[in-house]
Design goal:
Length: about 230
């Protein structure tokens, strides 16, 4: 996803953009998965964002200068924190983070995804948009999930010495559970795919914009000024 060579130009565009509800308040969509280890796009200072996404150094320690630090995918020191992995609240509800389309971003907004296909149909996941991708469509949520595939950019080889034998294909990651071979900090998020998501790939969803749960904001540090979820009436 987007944390990359063209980030300076993208950041300039994002800085003058409004980030509330850009994906749309509700609709039908698709999911994919990724984990590129790069600095998330929403970790840059930009208009409408009270606090950008927290980032970590190459040792997975919080960066004091995370807003200004260059992405590890562009020769810098800033990477995705392992704490921004998905987790199960219970058997039917999970929290996590996602990348949304770069053409119409919604940094820091949150969405309730209700799965509409596969064995996890009916389960719900609330995600916060912490990243963007120019390969992500308008109603697509690219779920941040260790072992989900690097996608367009790879900071994991630098940060975690990732290799394809364990981490799998560039898009989608491994077809089998390799989580026991992952760094300890990433194993819970990796196992999420095989446990709570039951190993399902890219299920469809119905989505609606919601107020961000405090638990998500605590992990990402990302919040939008003057934002509240649309009325359900």
């Amino acid at each position: 996803m987007a944390s990359f060579a063209r980030i300076a130009a993208l950041a300039a565009i994002l800085a003058s953009t409004s980030f509330v509800a850009a994906v749309g308040t509700s609709g039908s969509g698709t999911t994919t998965r990724y984990w590129d280890c790069c600095k998330p796009s929403c970790a840059w200072s930009m208009s409408g964002i009270t606090s950008p996404v927290k980032t970590c150094d190459i040792n997975d320690k919080p960066l004091a200068d995370g807003v200004t630090a260059q992405s590890g995918c562009n020769g810098g020191t800033s990477f995705t924190c392992s704490s921004q992995s998905p987790w199960a609240v219970n058997d039917k509800l999970a929290y996590g983070f996602a990348a949304v389309t770069a053409s119409n971003p919604a940094c820091c907004s949150c969405y309730k995804l209700t799965f509409t296909s596969s064995s996890i149909k009916g389960k719900t996941m609330i995600v916060q948009a912490t990243n963007t991708g120019n390969d992500v469509s308008g109603t697509q949520f690219d779920l941040a999930m260790p072992g989900g595939g690097f996608g367009q950019f790879d900071g994991c080889s630098k940060e975690w010495k990732a290799n394809s034998a364990v981490w799998g294909a560039q898009y989608g990651g491994s077809n089998t559970n390799q989580c026991s071979s992952f760094p300890a900090a990433l194993r819970p998020g990796c196992n999420f795919r095989w446990d709570w998501m039951e190993g399902q790939s890219n299920p469809t969803v119905n989505y609606e914009q919601v107020t961000c749960p405090a638990e998500l904001v605590a992990k990402s540090g990302c919040s939008v000024s003057g934002y509240s979820a649309p009325s359900s009436s």
